[in-house]
UniProtKB/TrEMBL annotation:
EF-1 is composed of 4 subunits: alpha, beta (1B-alpha=beta'), delta (1B-beta), and gamma (1B-gamma). Keywords: Elongation factor, Protein biosynthesis. GO terms for cellular component: cytosol; eukaryotic translation elongation factor 1 complex. The lineage of its organism: Eukaryota, Viridiplantae, Streptophyta, Embryophyta, Tracheophyta. GO terms for molecular function: guanyl-nucleotide exchange factor activity; translation elongation factor activity. This is Translation elongation factor EF1B beta/delta subunit guanine nucleotide exchange domain-containing protein. Pfam families: EF1_GNE. Gene3D superfamilies: 1.20.1050.130, 3.30.70.60. Belongs to the EF-1-beta/EF-1-delta family. EF-1-beta and EF-1-delta stimulate the exchange of GDP bound to EF-1-alpha to GTP.
Amino acid sequence: MAVTFYDLNSDIGLKKLDDCLLTRSYITGYQASKDDITVYAALSKPPSSEYVNVSRWYNHIDALLRISGVSAEGSGVIVEGSAPIATLPVDDKKASSAAAAADDDNDDVDLFGEETEEDKKAAEERSAAIKASAKRKESGKSSVLLDIKPWNDETDMQKLEEAVRSIKMEGLHWGASKLVPVGYGIKKLQIMLTIVDDLVSVDNLIEEHLMAEPINEYVQSCDIVAFNKI
């Protein structure tokens, strides 16, 4: 059965995750898996050191993704934006008042009024927005680790990384990075990114952005080190 977490970017969500990781090293099972990547990707930023267990786990997964990636499937995990409505207390009097108010509003609606062009257009726009939202929710995500190599040891690696991170597009989130020695005084940039599969193509990202002007002034080559579905 899949493990479910709610609102991991809130104090309540982080506290529950911290309690969960008090007696375990990973989200599920005894090795890092895609369940860990799912929860890792759901966090908008590194957790505060206040959450000792979450912070320990986050740093460990971050290191694994940078070095070798994570391939184990896991048992399944679900991350929701907030707690289900059913778990929240309901004030019966307020609910009754709201229902009565809704009935009053419905009495004012002209059920036989003629639909205008504006009404039709608004309905179509709402329908399109709902479909687009549903597609985004269904779309999978992937975590990718890239090796980006400079032209030589004189390349300014700080400017190289700034140029890489300057690439902005919907569905792309840049993560942690580090410089790794290659030899002869040359270092490569190793950087993590998370993508929404339906919105971002890693091949296009490399060919049309990282290897194109003006970034190719700094970048000599770019390779995919690890690619994991979340």
